[in-house]
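Review form for a predicted model. The reviewer records the input and the model, then writes brief findings.
Reviewer: anonymous (R2)
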Amino acid sequence: MYFRNHDMIALKGLLVLGIIHASYALIEDLCDTLPDKTPFRHPHSCSKYYTCKDKKPVEGTCLDGLYFDKEIGKCNDKMKVNCNVDLNKQCTSNSLYLADPESCDHYYICINKMAKRISCPSGSHFNPESSSCSQIDDYKCTLSTDINICEIVPKQTLFKHGDDCRKYKTCNEDNIVERSCPGSLWFNSLNGKCDIEENVKCGPEPIVRPVLPENRDMCGTPSRPYVGRVHDGLTCRGFYECAIKRDVNGNQILNENPAYQQCSKHEIFNEKSLLCVPRLENKCRFDRCDGWANEYVNIEGDGCRGYAMCERNREILRMTCPEKHYFDELTQDCVTSPIKYPSCQKASMG
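Model under review:
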């Protein structure tokens, strides 16, 4: 991912300094920092837009002849809207080929000054240098379009700071600036205003410790205490940090209440290496919805065809993509390009 030298905003470590890459995951992270019901334009389209609802983006599209006007929060006559990302504006001549800013295996061709989207053959990517589709081994595609957040959100929008509950960020022309709420007030990211502390939900979600069997000793026995990390045995992300504990006389005793931790949403705890590892590259014998609220995840070992619906960290339903489609957990969509995440690949026959 590449970034411009603008003042920027950090969103969950994925949106860095105010520039975002136009994937659904990052659009979703942007909604996590914006007040509810905030509308903003699609980074690569003048007619598409999103509205944040319960911290999730809801997509919309304007009718032909209209552009989304971020300042009034609705579609407007394109002549009244300042938007320069419309691919049709780049069609200055016929038979001009344009790269798709959101897909390596698609491109646009200009016909009568209109951009028509075309798919490359399977196993190839569009190569803007040759204006043709090249085999993946011959051309490495990188989606590197950078977007300034201030170009897609309404003016005077206030963003959650992320690290400091009393601070917020906003746009000053094309740059992000940082501000602090006055006095004892905290920033309320739900309504985009400075508010009293008891009305503000700020900081990371509390880690919920799983309920373990009463007779389970996570850190060994009194005679043989264990020191180090140990999997919680119930979830994909949870583990305990077992450490030496001593009584008032200095004698070593079993730590019956070890510190409980969790890997990030995009990781799982590997029971062999005892490390947090990327979830799409590793399998987990427990519920893969751990850490996922109202989203979909790949199903382990089904060839990446199916997906599970998550609700409050638990799987509630399984579905399968249409024929010749694969589920991509990153984009939250069924796609035609084969998905080969190790986490959902079928076990090889020995």
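Findings: The CA atoms of residues 11 and 30 lie 7 Å apart.
Further findings: The chain has four domains: 1-82+141-202, 87-135, 204-279, 287-350.
Recommendation: see findings above.
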